[in-house]
Amino acid sequence: MSSSRYTRKDHFHQRAKSERWVARSVYKLEELNRRFSLIRKNDRVVDFGCAPGSWLQYLGDVVGRKGAVVGYDLEPVEVGLPPQVRFHRADIAGLTTERIRADLASVWSAVRRKPAPDPVPKSFGPHAVLSDMAPKLTGVRDADQARSVELAEHALRLAEALMPSPQGPAHFVAKIFQGRETDAFVSRVKQGFHKVRLIKPEATREGSREVFVVAEGRRPQTPGPSIPTEPKASGPGSDDGSSSESHGAVAAGASDDLARPQTDRVSGRTRRRSC
């Protein structure tokens, strides 16, 4: 590992500590939002792979007191969160659109001090769906890349179901590891969204094959794979090694370095105000 790589790590790690974010990966989301205006005040946001909580912290700041953010991960989020942000420990494989809408409506109604609708209408959904999930790494590059795309595909199906209308704001962001399936996944995202970009944020570790697919503007809905309506069993989910981030088989964001084996990384966020 080169000295420049250590310097890069130290820069973002030390900055995260000084600014009291839980982990350095917050700067990836901050850059994406600054460049593409993904999240705005009062927005509703779903965050897959949210442990240890830095993205949740950042999102809470951006959406403000009348916004709503729900995060899911296999690993717990222990950092303090504002009322407009709520964490649920869950496996993405067991999540349904009905459950996510209900969780989002619960937060949305609570910050407005109004009862949540029951049932929640299908027209109620997020303005953005984010996924920082990553698989448990095996060290076999092709297998790890394929699994990361599989997780991103799952997040994409949920995002399309949660944001079906071509009207209004709709953003989808998913982390994947670059490899032979990257082009196919980007093409798949283009079927559901008008603008699709492949971005490598500055805070990504040197030598990493991690990139983010950033999509904007829903195309008219077309029939696709159905989303499960009955929850499955959920289980436990970490960051990029500079601070604790979530891991797990199917639910949280992970290490941004595909080059070396690591533990169950299926999350990928940065925590603030507790470094």
What does this structure look like?
The protein has 6 helices and 7 strands; from the N terminus they run H-H-E-H-E-E-H-E-H-E-H-E-E. The chain has 275 residues and is an alpha/beta fold. The protein has a 7-stranded mixed sheet, sandwiched between helices. Strand 4, helix 5 and strand 5 form a beta-alpha-beta unit. It is globular, with a radius of gyration of 17 Å. Mean pLDDT is 80; it is low at 229-275.
Distance between the termini: 25 Å
Q: Helix count?
A: 6
User: Runs with pLDDT <50, length 5+?
Assistant: 229-275
- Radius of gyration, in Å, reads 17 Å
**Succession of helices and strands:** HHEHEEHEHEHEE
Note the main sheet: 7 strands, mixed
Structural class: alpha/beta
Beta-strand portion reads 15-25%
Kindly state the number of beta strands.
7
What's the short version?
The protein is an alpha/beta fold.
Tag the structure with descriptive keywords.
single chain; globular
Break the fold down into its secondary structure elements and pairings:
Elements: H1 3-18, H2 26-36, E1 44-48, H3 54-63, E2 68-73, E3 85-89, H4 97-112, E4 128-131, H5 141-162, E5 171-177, H6 182-192, E6 193-199, E7 210-218
Parallel strand pairs: 1-2, 1-4, 2-3, 4-5
Antiparallel strand pairs: 5-7, 6-7
